[in-house]
Amino acid sequence: MAETSASPTLLLKDELDIVIPTIRNLDFLEMWRPFFQPYHLIIVQDGDPSKIIKVPGGFDYELYNRNDITRILGPKASCISFKDSACRCFGYLVSKKKYIFTIDDDCFVAKDPSGKEINALQQHIKNLLAPSTPFFFNTLYDPYREGTDFVRGYPFSLREGVPTAVSHGLWLNIPDYDAPTQLVKPLEKNTRFVDAVMTIPKGTLFPMCGMNLAFNRELIGPAMYFGLMGDGQPIGRYDDMWAGWCTKVICDHMGWGVKTGLPYIWHSKASNPFVNLKKEYKGIYWQEELIPFFQSAILPKDCTTVQKCYIELSKQVRAKLGKVDEYFIKLADAMVTWVEAWDELNQTGKSSEVPNGAAK
Length: 360
What we know:
This protein is an alpha/beta fold. The chain has one domain: Spore Coat Polysaccharide Biosynthesis Protein SpsA, Chain A (Alpha-Beta Complex).
């Protein structure tokens, strides 16, 4: 795909929603205005629903708070996390668009090594519209990028590639570290801009970060559940990683691709490592059980839809991870509730309800 063409951005103007979880005024949107203003925003307000969140003028958006979530989902609202950025997945649920881009409100426009501002959204769109190559690694990384191709020895039968379900972007400045790493490297910054996009190979897991992420909602949306985190739960800050592990297992099963690399955003502030440690410490132990679980997870051939895959995965979570901690039994139930809510909203059109805080 030609790097100089802006057509992917224009093409998806009416096919993509930008989902933003927040607890504060969205002044950061001013910096993104040249890139985001043509698109529809879905803002998911976390915390106190009586707090007024200010959005800069000129943006087309819907704003949902906890009262809206409860009103729209009813009892199924129990599957949406409270006081955690995992609440963002409610935006995926109510969107009607084919694609989703989600970004945190402490993420600003980054610059490439030449000093040019990076249109992260446009790069995500390029990633999603180009095929992936999960079954055979190309040593020049993305073979569909202008100026490159498949290398010698790459099977011709695999060069058509497969649909890309997920585009995982990276960050300059503050890295996405866990609390122990934050504590031992408090001043470390990521200054390295790697001009590359690659497909994560089939059978390989990765730690997905939700602060700069895009995906094909029609393909993989029902698996993009960020779990039960935050208030009332024994764990936090594993929401995006949980979604990433589930999504990768399902993409591998369905024959779809996941890309990582460009685009970069500028991550402006590090969260408190001591607060993070309190949220993460059980996850740090549990992940030693979680990773082998997902590495060995096998989905039956009759799992022919993402929903069937996700329900099957929930059964395996209950049976195997339920032995690690009873929290995973609760999480398995929430996974089922999530799929039920997805099917309900996306079959009956209930997600077209206008939220209390809506603005056009």
